[in-house]
Design brief:
This protein has about 100 residues and is of the alpha/beta class. Helices cover about 40% and strands about 25% of the residues.
Length: about 100
């Protein structure tokens, strides 16, 4: 399975990439919203792990663009923004699941 990881924290991204690769995933990483949006629209991914606090374009904006363009790839939001309202906003924007960072 091929995943897109959109995460601006390089240390966390490195950790997640290592763990996902050990589990058999192929992972492509983007550290900003503009590149993440482009990659998902140009390549086929089986899933996307999306941070909301991305530079250049927020994860919520990126997700909205993907869903507006009918991109149906499953999206897991993984973010430090963990309030009830932010969860609702993420799911309403089209995320398939929402997980707060510890």
């Amino acid at each position: 399975m091929k995943l897109l990881l959109a995460e601006d924290d390089a240390r966390l991204a490195d950790y997640l990439i290592r763990k996902l690769k050990l589990s058999g995933y192929v992972v492509e990483w983007s550290n900003n919203g503009v590149d993440a949006e482009f990659l998902a629209l140009q390549e086929d991914f089986d899933g996307i792990v999306l941070d909301l606090g991305l530079p250049q374009k927020s994860g919520l904006e990126v997700l909205g663009c993907w869903r507006e363009r009918k991109l149906e790839t499953p999206v897991l939001i993984l973010t430090a923004r963990d309030s009830w309202q932010e969860r609702v906003d993420g799911l309403r924007a089209g995320a398939d699941d929402y997980l707060g960072k510890p």
